Amino acid sequence: MTTPPTLDTDEARSRIHELTVIDVRTPGEYASGHLPGALNIPLDRIERALEDIRHAARRGDILVVCASGARSENACKVLAENGIATATLAGGTGAWAAEGHDLHHPEGASRATWAMERQVRLTAGSVVLLGLLLGFLVHPAFQLISAGIAAGLVFSAVTNTCGMAVMLSKLPHNRPRGADLDAALAALRSR
What we know:
By secondary structure, the chain is an alpha/beta fold. The protein has helices spanning 9-15, 27-31, 50-59, 70-81, 92-98, 116-137, 143-159, 163-168, 178-189, and strands spanning 6-7, 20-23, 39-40, 62-65, 87-89. It starts with 5 loop residues before the first strand and ends with a helix. The model has no long low-confidence stretch (mean pLDDT 88).
């Protein structure tokens, strides 16, 4: 499968009014700031939204974004496998903000969830420290916990996937409320 087309932040900004922007981050990450007009459809819900995205793609170009570009590239591949052409934002919302472009926040959004990458780093680091501590204080076999996390991180880097991120995305603060996802899908249908 080929890599989806990539727009740089300046090109995306100049075309933002004509693009349907789909943010595939978790709802918490989306609430912490997103591109103007972006609709939140988390990566694990993309398949549920295929028909609505296909409908929007018939009317204009689709730009898929995430924090850094990895999840949006994965989403673009899923969409391409289903006959939907999309592009991704080089560097994601991180690059957008670094270029000084404004990020929007949902009205009434009070929760500020950490980016998934930060959640993974905290969880992995905590589990590694726990394994080392238990290995030192209780039994050396507990160090295997740390070794398992290290192996998982290497596998994650080699395959560009992250099982820990998938598990963390299931936590309540990372899940979309049904009404939020339904509103995003309705907005796609109206485009």
